[in-house]
Amino acid sequence: MPLLVPPLMAPGTMARRPQPEIDADGLRLRPWRPSDRAAVVAGYADPAIRRWHCRSMTDDEARAWIAGWPERWRRETGAGWAVVDHTGVLGQISLRRLDLAEGLAEVSYWVLPAARGRGVAPRALAALTGWAFTGLGLHRVELSHSTANPASCRVALRAGFPAEGTKRGEGRHADGWHDMHLHARLRGDPDQRTATRPVTGGPAPAPR
After folding, report:
1. Apex CA 25: angle with CA 27 and CA 51, to 5°?
2. What's the first-to-final CA gap in the chain, in angstroms?
3. pTM
4. Residue 165: what pLDDT?
């Protein structure tokens, strides 16, 4: 049956353009490269990242994970970036559960142990969100995290993502079901970012 509301973004909005690199306040978001495989393996070997993302990754799986991002971009189902500085890969950030017709995406991120406490996650999150609104044209970007993960809550707030509520029993982790905090930004929201101070208490990943 015909829709009464046209799609917000037409098919091909992403696929017809190359995936960009994005400046992020002293950091850079760039598409993944095959040479980044060791950083991906190290990320998913970290106990805290494993706890919140609920997965591990072998070397072969990391190779396939990196190789899969260009296809996700072409299919307009997701987009992933390595977060880097002059020293190399610091973490990852991605748009997932992407729905161009509705102008919606969920963001996921993690930071390697050696890069924590430097404001990497909030800077990357703010930069990607800005591009998602002004460069891509999304209407809403959201993230959710376990209520047992206060570091991720601090990252969301510092990047201007206000808390919208709690989804009861929405996330299944190794130790059972977790309530999840929902944060979101809309295109056109006033800038609610706070000062980027060191984040302590482990990584600040959104859920898997």
Report:
1. 55
2. 34
3. 0.89
4. 96
DSSP conformation letters of the chain: ---SS--SS-TTTTTTSPPPPEE-SS-EEEE--GGGHHHHHHHHHSHHHHHHH-----HHHHHHHHHHHHHHHHHTS-EEEEEEETTEEEEEEEEEEEETTTTEEEEEEEE-GGGTTSSHHHHHHHHHHHHIIIII--SEEEEEEETT-HHHHHHHHHTT--EEEEEEEEEEETTEEEEEEEEEEETT------------SS--PPP-
Query: What are the chain's domains?
Result: 22-186 (3.40.630.30)
pLDDT single digits (tens) 143-165:
999 999 999 999 999 999 999 99
Q: Using the structure block, give the residue that is written with the tokens 């017709």.
A: 101
Q: Of 84, 201, 83, 94, nearest to 153 (Cα)? A: 201
Distance set, CA 176 to CA 51, 173, 182 (Å): 11, 5, 19
| Total length of the chain | 208
